[in-house]
């Protein structure tokens, strides 16, 4: 039997939502930390985490963090901190946020110093940097990167296609907020109705996560972070390469991923070894959490 609970906590002085998916049958199992890709809503990963618990008897609890300000703040928290909603955060700040979250929330849940970090898309980059920090703190980290955006994002087919739009959203936050202000007045039921055709066949948690994207502050934050990713995720820097080469790393690549072309997998296999680079054989998409969570959970379970 498993359950998922959403919580809000103040991490590093900023309100943060996170999800805890846990089984009541194995309280002494391993703890996992899931770091999402952009747009960074933890609810996208609820079904994926539930499938992991079903398929593995090693796990007791999975924590999934949401990116800072990529979730609409509840009215009560806005009143407590009216400034936070207006702030935007770069990739490096999201890395610091994940590190702070681990120290404040996850560390006390560990029975030892071992943890598995699963990073999806840009979450794989965050997880790689986090791995280095945690290992310097004495933790043993098993890193699993799913459809990892680690190099040359702007040069990918998706980068070429989306780059100008992302740059516009990032560079004109006031205009974007003005153009999308009406979303703030929509009841969540209306937002769910509007997004449902785009995520047809997806679990209700995914519909909810997509509906939460219809928020002017969220849109500007998603665009701001994405623009920072396209600007700064270029060649594999020596520090990142060193972390990936240490061991306890597996990277999972798609065959038709517009954000991570297959050639990136072949290049990465030369750096970390072909045995640690896994090529998808299921036709899974980059945004696998929308409809293919069970498939990828089956692939991930054997790596934990």
Describe the structure in your own words:
The protein has 304 residues and is of the alpha/beta class. The chain has a single domain, classed as Alpha/Beta hydrolase fold, catalytic domain (Rossmann fold, 3-Layer(aba) Sandwich), CATH 3.40.50. It is 43% helix and 18% strand. It is built from twelve helices and eight strands. Helix 11 (262-272) links the parallel strand 7 (249-253) and strand 8 (277-279). The protein is globular, with a radius of gyration of 18 Å. The model has no long low-confidence stretch (mean pLDDT 96).
Keywords:
about 300 residues, alpha/beta, Rossmann fold, 8-stranded mixed β-sheet, 12 helices, about 45% helix, globular, Lipid droplet-associated hydrolase, LDAH
How many distinct helices? Answer: 12
- The CATH class label is Alpha Beta
Instruction: Report strand order across the widest sheet.
Output: 1-2-4-3-5-6-7-8
Strand content bin: 15-25%
Q: Indicate the radius of gyration in whole angstroms.
A: 18 Å
Gap between N and C termini: 20 Å
State the low-pLDDT regions, or none: none
- Work out the count of structural domains: 1
User: For the report, how would you describe the main beta sheet?
Assistant: 8 strands, mixed
The proportion of residues forming helix, as a percent range, comes to: 40-55%
Architecture, according to CATH? 3-Layer(aba) Sandwich
Average the pLDDT over all residues and give the rounded result. 96
Enzyme class: hydrolase
Family: Belongs to the AB hydrolase superfamily. LDAH family.
Catalytic activity: a cholesterol ester + H2O = cholesterol + a fatty acid + H(+)
EC number: 3.1.1.13
């Amino acid at each position: 039997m498993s359950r998922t609970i959403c919580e809000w906590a103040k991490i590093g002085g900023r309100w943060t939502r996170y999800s805890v998916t846990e089984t009541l049958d194995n309280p002494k199992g391993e703890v996992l930390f899931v770091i999402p890709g952009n747009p960074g809503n933890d609810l996208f990963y609820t079904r994926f985490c539930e499938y992991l618990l079903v398929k593995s008897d090693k796990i007791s609890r999975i924590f999934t963090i949401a990116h800072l300000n990529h979730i609409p703040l509840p009215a009560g928290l806005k009143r407590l901190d009216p400034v936070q909603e207006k702030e935007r955060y770069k990739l490096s700040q999201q890395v610091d946020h994940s590190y702070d979250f681990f120290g404040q929330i996850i560390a006390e849940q560990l029975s030892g110093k071992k943890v598995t970090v699963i990073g999806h898309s840009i979450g794989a980059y965050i997880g790689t940097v986090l791995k280095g920090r945690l290992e310097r703190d004495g933790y043993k980290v098993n890193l699993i990167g799913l459809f990892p955006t680690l190099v040359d994002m702007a040069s990918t087919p998706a980068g070429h296609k989306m780059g100008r739009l992302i740059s516009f959203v990032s560079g004109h936050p006031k205009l974007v907020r003005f153009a999308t202000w009406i979303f703030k007045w929509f009841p969540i039921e209306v937002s769910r109705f509007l997004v449902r055709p785009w995520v047809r066949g997806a679990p209700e948690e995914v519909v909810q996560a997509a509906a939460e994207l219809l928020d002017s502050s969220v849109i500007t934050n998603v665009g701001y972070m994405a623009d920072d990713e396209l600007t700064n995720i270029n060649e594999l820097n020596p520090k990142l390469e060193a972390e990936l080469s240490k061991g306890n790393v597996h990277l999972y690549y798609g065959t038709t991923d517009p954000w991570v072309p297959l050639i990136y997998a072949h290049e990465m296999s030369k750096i970390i070894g072909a045995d640690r680079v896994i090529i998808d054989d299921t036709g899974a998409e980059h945004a696998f959490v929308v409809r293919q969570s069970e498939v990828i959970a089956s692939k991930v379970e054997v790596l934990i």
